[in-house]
Design a protein that fits this description.
Length: 111
């Protein structure tokens, strides 16, 4: 799982305050959610979430990280959306023989 997807997992756990509910929302096993969060905490060297038998609560570092994740996820989605909805723009130059241009290209351009 890449880091952006791991951030999505983390933000869902943070918002739902539950590994199980996050796993149901994301349609992935709860064990995967647990592994992702543990790996993230290990990579960052901080505890992001305090775990009890009934609840998950963010630490101060977890709060800070959540807000950074939301910002990053929004930036990525905005960047991807900009490309997926845009129409091609700009100048297109085609170099071809005059006969091909007259018989094939120009009739297509004028229709």
């Amino acid at each position: 799982m890449d880091r952006i997807e791991a951030m999505r997992v983390y933000t869902r756990v943070y918002e739902r305050r539950s590994f199980k509910l996050a796993s149901l929302d994301l349609n992935i096993p709860a064990s995967t959610v647990t592994e992702v969060i543990k790996a993230m905490e290990k990579r960052l060297g901080v505890v992001l979430l305090e775990r009890t038998t009934r609840r998950v609560s963010p630490t101060i570092d977890g709060e800070t990280f959540y807000h950074r994740c939301i910002s990053i996820i929004n930036d990525v989605e905005e960047a991807e959306h900009g490309f997926s909805t845009s129409t091609p723009q700009g100048l297109l130059r085609v170099d071809t023989h005059g006969t091909i241009a007259r018989h094939f290209l120009l009739p297509q351009i004028h229709t």
